[in-house]
Amino acid sequence: MSDVVTRFAPSPTGYLHIGGARTALFNWLYARGRGGKFLLRIEDTDRERSTPEATDAILRGLKWLGLDWDGDVVSQFDGRERHAEVAREMLARGHAYKCFSTPQEIEAFREKARAEGRSTLFLSPWRDAGPATHPDAPFVIRLKAPREGQTVIEDAVQGTVTFRNDQLDDMVCLRSDGTPTYMLAVVVDDHDMGVTHVIRGDDHLNNAARQVQVYRAMDWAEPAWAHIPLIHGPDGKKLSKRHGAVGLEEYQAMGYPAAGMRNYLTRLGWAHGDAEFFTDEQAKEWFDLAGIGRAPARLDFKKLENLSGQHIAATPDAELLPEIEAFLAAAGQPILSQAQKDGLSRALYCVKDRAKTFPELIDKARFVLATRPIDPDEKAGKALDPVSRGILAELTPQLQNASWEREMLEASVAKVAEAHGIGLGKIAGPIRAALAGRTVSPSIFDMMLVIGRDETIARLKDATA
């Protein structure tokens, strides 16, 4: 098999949509799993709507998702001379023609066709006109598309897709001001960049029928086509803001880990047996075009949370901390002090299990991020009644002399509980309130080990004061 080259080619007219992010991911997985190249092209030919800010947002989103690309980012606008050159070459080969029809003439043609109940597909009177008849007037260069027969696209996802050629127009390749159209630029760029597999949304399927004519006119090898279904909301309707977050960066700010997002988006419309949770290496090894379904995928936040939680639990602590810091920055939250970072590093082992998102993890780690005096919430405050405070006052000197290991801490607490004829659960509540200020937290012994002897005793003394 020749070297695989895929590409992601977004338009920089807004944020990176979650559907675009999945398209990029599928291209990345397909190339990386086959030792191929994954290229990035910014389709910035629409100068009015393209912005540098949108380009930056797309690059940030891809970097957060962990999708690295090969070589430099290609600007489609920069290749406009090359695109125009190909239009002129098709003209010279007889596969394109100069069309002098004005916008008014084209509209009049369509109005007449509508009135007569005919197809409004514009049939240019200049298609077969000889150069001798050409006026000295502005013209566009149109592709001379076949009028009879069918255009067949063999698609890796959609199967064999057939288009009647009498339904295809002679698309404009070069405008009258000499600028190339998007439809031409895409083909020229894909050819020049050596793209072997065009994996994109199925909203581009009709474009493939028109774009393939350029490949054939230029005697270029056609890429393999794979048009993937779009993502719908949970209600089965086209994804929009009413379903919640649609921009990829919003998901980072909501606290989903990149690995969980990659896993979830890979499973969104693609399957490998019953596998739900998998690593990047497994995804690269397993991902193929045959596993992509034809029906639109539905966004499922519960499944996303579930997978995210599994990835948080499975990620080594040293890798998790920088991602938590990046989340705080993306969410516009205060950055961690060095002391908080050190504390969180020590606490990760006991707070990362069963946390589905980073906000949940940080909430569980509040006991190590907070500073004295700990202000208990209303529920925790009720656990610190006079009797409980008296028991904590007895426990404090026992802990002062205990060896700071889990077994010894458990023994010290059990001894005091036994002396009062109460179970461990009864004494754990007040200790939890004193150390975390909450009724829900990691194990009291994990908290003691994480914050250390001095801080534990200081918090217990605060609570009994």
UniProtKB/TrEMBL annotation:
**From the record, which residues define motif 'KMSKS' region?**
238-242
In terms of InterPro entries, this protein maps to: aa-tRNA-synth_I_cd-bd, aa-tRNA-synth_I_codon-bd_sub2, aa-tRNA-synth_I_CS, aa_tRNA-synth_I_cd-bd_sf, Glu-tRNA-ligase_bac/mito, Glu/Gln-tRNA-synth, Glu/Gln-tRNA-synth_Ib_cat-dom, GluQ/Sye
Source superkingdom = Bacteria
Compartments in which it is found: Cytoplasm
Q: What is this protein called?
A: Glutamate--tRNA ligase
Q: What class of enzyme is it?
A: ligase
* UniProt keyword Plastid, yes or no: no
Catalysed reactions, semicolon-separated: tRNA(Glu) + L-glutamate + ATP = L-glutamyl-tRNA(Glu) + AMP + diphosphate
Q: Name one GO biological process term.
A: glutamyl-tRNA aminoacylation
Sorted keywords for this record are: Aminoacyl-tRNA synthetase, ATP-binding, Cytoplasm, Ligase, Nucleotide-binding, Protein biosynthesis
> Which residues of the sequence carry a binding annotation for ATP?
241
Q: Write down the species.
A: Albidovulum aquaemixtae
**EC number(s) of the enzyme?**
6.1.1.17
What binding partners and quaternary form does the record give? Answer: Monomer.
Family as reported in the entry's similarity comment = Belongs to the class-I aminoacyl-tRNA synthetase family. Glutamate--tRNA ligase type 1 subfamily.
* Keyword Nucleus tagged: no
User: Pfam family example for this protein?
Assistant: Anticodon_2
Q: What's the encoding gene here?
A: gltX_1
Gene Ontology terms for molecular function: ATP binding; glutamate-tRNA ligase activity; tRNA binding; zinc ion binding
